[in-house]
Amino acid sequence: MDNQSRRDAVRAFKERKVSAGVFAVRCQPTGEVWVSASRNLEAQQTSLWSQLKWKGCYTKALQEAWNTHGEEAFSFEVLETVEDEELSPMGLADRLKSLDAAWREKLGAAKALG
Predict the structure, then answer these.
(1) pLDDT tens digits for 36-93?
(2) How far is CA 54 from CA 29, 32, 71, in A?
(3) Looking at the predicted structure, is the pLDDT value of residue 28 above 80?
(4) End-to-end distance of the chain based on CA atoms, in angstroms?
(5) Helix (H) or strand (E) holding 62
(6) Residue at 5 is within a domain
(7) What pLDDT does residue 114 have?
(8) pLDDT at 110 over 80
(9) Taking a C-beta distance cutoff of 8 angstroms, is the pair 112, 59 a contact?
(10) What one-character DSSP code corresponds to residue 71?
């Protein structure tokens, strides 16, 4: 890859649109559901799966279910995205927090992260 192509690729990466929103992790054998909000849904599953594989997830029940049933038993689902172009960082944080709480209540889910 030449220098111009590399610069173009870096610029495109930095300018890409990142989706914020709320996601669910489901354990098929048990029916358990965990919900959390994320500022970057595209990267969230990779990050969470990595934590679980390396036994570093802070959500004890989720880690225990993963250890018992394995990766194949889990699914990652985006529940709702937030258009954040008109929101301030604080406004986005507040919106994600309220959506997180609403989805956890709706699904009877536990908190997936934190």
Answers:
(1) 999 999 999 999 999 999 999 999 999 999 999 999 999 999 999 998 678 899 999 9
(2) 21, 21, 12
(3) yes
(4) 40
(5) helix 60-69
(6) no
(7) 61
(8) yes
(9) yes
(10) G
DSSP state of 73: G
3-class DSSP assignment, residue 98: helix
d(CA 95, CA 86): 12
Residue 57 is assigned to a structural domain of this protein: yes
What is the distance between the alpha carbons of residues 83 and 92, in angstroms, rounded to a whole number? 9
Number of domains in the chain: 1
The enclosing domain of 79 has a CATH number of 3.40.1440.10
Here the tokens at position 4 are 């111009």
In a domain, 2, yes or no: no
Residue 99 belongs to a domain: yes
The two structure tokens encoding residue 80: 């709702």
Residue whose token pair is 């960082």:
89
